[in-house]
């Protein structure tokens, strides 16, 4: 076996072992959400610090004890991938490593001869740990997505948000061996589309303060799942409204938890009802707490205390990206222990 194949196998095997050890697959298949990279580092007993690193994304040290540092200068998906790469170094018993941007671009099978074996192992670990084939399968099943639908940049982008990786890393992973959902040609087409264009299409007439922030499209299929993102993320909710029977989606619960509605429309021809239903499209962002439940209820507005026809609820964690110091995962553990 070549060194590269051996490295890939070794990285993948350790990633699968950690998934099993922490029961990640069962939890995610049931509740949604993504692989919690920082929580796993902390649970493995490895000190994890966030620092504004210069020219580096992450650092792994092994003396006097194993430890990981991740930059604060990048967004959450890059922080997560870097953390996974450094966790790989740690779990595979590697020598200390200073890792720069190249960890985001390297493809193990095409790595140049100057790339060290331990880097290939950590790369393979990071990809398999964050983006295992079963994580894609779980999202496809929940959302009713098919492989063919991944040719649509909007769908691939929504998948990337749910698995907590960058759009590019997600698209590349959809082509990799063992997943093989898209072809090279589809990948090239997907990567050509500017992220800004995808976000703009999702937001319709709403102009956000910037296009760095992510835009989630939430539907009934996300009901009761866990949404993990960043403080400035925008949410476009598309919900069926039974207006023919006098029910409308109301914002009381949403406003109470600090969500601001920035756009609100009824879709379909002039908002006309079709069979008594319309699609209500609500764009919102959190101006309040970063952890909680986003709840909307469908009510008859003239009977405010009447029983709602239905409710929509997702659990959210918008604490990303990580700030300087300890990770949110570690702070939570410290609080729980206190
Ligand atoms: Zn490395």
Key attributes of the depicted protein:
alpha+beta; globular; binds zinc ion; Immunoglobulin-like; 3 domains; five-stranded mixed β-sheet; Arc Repressor Mutant, subunit A; 39% helix; 13 strands; four-stranded mixed β-sheet; 338 residues
Largest sheet: 5 strands, mixed
What is the number of strand segments? Answer: 13
What do the pLDDT scores average to? Answer: 93
Give the N-to-C terminal Cα separation. 50 Å
Please write the CATH class name of the largest domain. Answer: Mainly Alpha
The CATH topology of the largest domain is: Arc Repressor Mutant, subunit A
Helix/sheet category: alpha+beta
- By DSSP (H or I, 4+ residues per run), the number of helices equals 13
Order of helices and strands: HHHEEEHEHHHHHHHEEEEHEEEEEH
Shape: globular
The unique ligands bound to this protein are:
zinc ion
Number of structural units classed as domains:
3
**Rg from C-alpha positions?**
21 Å
Name the strands of the widest sheet in spatial order. 4-2-3-1-13
Q: Using the 3D structure, state the CATH architecture of the largest domain.
A: Orthogonal Bundle
Percent range for helical residues? 25-40%
Low-confidence runs of at least 5 consecutive residues: none
Strand content: 15-25%
């Amino acid at each position: 076996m070549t060194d590269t194949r051996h490295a890939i196998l070794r990285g993948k095997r350790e990633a699968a072992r950690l998934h099993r050890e922490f029961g990640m697959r069962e939890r995610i298949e049931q509740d949604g959400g993504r692989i919690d990279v920082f929580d796993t580092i902390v649970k493995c007993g490895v000190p994890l610090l966030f620092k504004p690193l210069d020219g580096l994304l992450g650092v792994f040290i092994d003396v006097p004890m194993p430890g990981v540092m991740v930059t604060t200068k990048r967004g959450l998906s890059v922080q997560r991938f870097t953390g996974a790469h450094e966790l790989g170094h740690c779990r595979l018993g590697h020598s200390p490593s200073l890792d720069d941007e190249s960890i985001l671009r390297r493809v193990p099978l095409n790595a140049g001869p100057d790339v060290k074996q331990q880097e290939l192992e950590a790369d393979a670990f990071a990809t398999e740990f964050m983006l295992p084939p079963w994580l894609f399968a779980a999202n496809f099943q929940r959302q009713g997505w098919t492989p063919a639908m991944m040719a649509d940049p909007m769908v691939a982008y929504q998948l990337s948000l749910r698995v907590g990786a960058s759009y590019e890393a997600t698209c590349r992973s959809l082509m990799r061996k063992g997943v093989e959902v898209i072809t090279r040609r589809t990948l090239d087409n997907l990567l050509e589309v500017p992220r800004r264009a995808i976000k703009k299409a999702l937001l319709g007439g709403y102009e956000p303060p910037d296009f760095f922030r992510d835009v989630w499209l939430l539907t009934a299929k996300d009901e009761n799942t866990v949404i993990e993102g960043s403080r400035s993320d925008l949410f476009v909710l598309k919900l069926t409204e039974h207006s023919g029977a006098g029910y409308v989606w109301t914002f009381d619960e949403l406003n109470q938890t600090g969500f601001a509605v920035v756009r609100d429309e009824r879709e379909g021809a002039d908002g006309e009802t079709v069979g008594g239903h319309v699609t209500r499209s609500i764009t919102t962002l959190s101006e309040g707490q970063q952890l909680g439940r986003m709840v909307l209820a469908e009510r008859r507005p003239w009977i405010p205390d009447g029983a709602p026809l239905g409710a929509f609820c997702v659990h959210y964690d918008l604490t990303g990206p990580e700030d300087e110091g300890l990770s949110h995962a570690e702070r939570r553990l410290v609080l729980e222990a206190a």
